[in-house]
Write a structure and sequence with these properties.
The protein is α+β, with helices and mostly antiparallel strands. The chain has six helices and 16 strands. The longest helix has 22 residues. Bound molecules: zinc ion (3 copies).
Length: 362
Amino acid sequence: MKKTRLDRADGRYLYWYSFDAPPPAALRVEEQERGDDQIELRWNALLGEEVIVSTGRQDRTFLPPAEHCPLCPTAGEAAFATEIPSADYEIAVFENRFPSFRPDAPDAPDASPIERRAPARGVCEVIVYSPRHDATLASLPEAQMRRLVDVWADRYAELSARPEVQYVFIFENRGKEIGVTLTHPHGQVYGFPFIPPRVEQENAAAAEHHARTGRCLVCDIVAEEVSHGRRIVAAVDGFVAYVPFAARVPYEVHVAPVGHRPSLTVLSQGQRERFARLLGIVQAKYDALWGFPMPYTMSMHQRAADGVPRPGEHLHVEFMPPYRTKDKLKYLAGVETGAGTFINDTAPEEKAQELREAAPRT
Ligand SMILES: [Zn+2]
Ligand SMILES: [Zn+2]
Ligand SMILES: [Zn+2]
C-alpha cells in the first residue's frame, strides 16, 4: 500500500492510496472556496450531551447528476475541478469540505452556565471507495473490500494519534432513504473530540458486565450467538455476522471477530482478509434480499483514542437498514425519539433466517 499526500491551499489534505496501481504522478488541484461558517459544540443541558452546530453543511451538494459529481476524478483540461484531481488511485481520502469538526475550529466560550459551548475541534474525512461513479461496495471485487479494511485501519491509527481526537468513528451512509447527498460510493471517518454518547452507553454496559463476570461483553454475546446459531446470518473463520437478540430494527446485523480484538489495527493480514470477505457477504445478502441495493447506516465501534483502558472495547460493525419490509420504511416515531425505546415488530430469529437464505447474486 502506497500513500500519496497532497496539501491544498485551503488547509485540507488529500491522500491517494495505491495498491496495485502506481501512485499518481502529476497533480493538478484547483482550490475550492471554503466558507466561513459557524461551527461549534453546544452542550444540550437537558440531555447532558453535545450537539454539533455546523451551519455550512446546509450548502452541501445535493444529489448532483453524474457529470457534476464532486467525488469523481477531475477529467480533462476544461472539466470542472472535483475534490480529486487524479484517477490514479484505488481509494482516496480527503478532508470533508462541509465538516462537522475541523482541526482549526474557533474558540467557543460559554455564554452562561446553561448555554455552554466548546470548539468543534476534530477531523471529518471522506473515503472514496472507487474512482468509478457507478460502483457499489457489493459490486466491487473482493480485493477492493480488502483494501478498504487496510485504509480504515490506517485512518484509525493516524487519527487516533492526533491530540484533539478522542474517538475515531468510521461509518457509511448508503441510500437516499437515509439522506445520502452523493451517490458515488464513499464512506466517512469522524475524529471526535469526545467519546460519542452511543459509544459511552455501550462502554457503560460493558464495564458493568466486566465488573460482574470479569469478561468482555461482546466476547460473551458473540460466543452465545455462535453456540446456538439461531440468529447467525453468515460466518467465516474467526468472524461472525448475526442479527442481535434485541435488534432495534428488523434487519439490523452486527459483524464481529469471535476472539477479543479491540480494533482493526490488531488484525493479522489473514484476519483482515476474512473480515473483508464477511462484510462483502453481508452486503451481498442485503442486496439479494429484495433485488435492489439495500440502504443502511454502517457504524464501526472500536477502542477509543483517549488512552483510557476499557476491558469491553471489542471491534464490531453495526448495519442498520431503514426498511422493515420491501416497500415500507421504518420511521423513528414518538416512542423511539421521545421515549428512547425502540419497537421492533419482527422476530430477530426470523429476519436472520431470511438473510441467511438470501443468496448473494453472482
Ligand atoms: Zn462520481
Ligand atoms: Zn471481547
Ligand atoms: Zn456498538
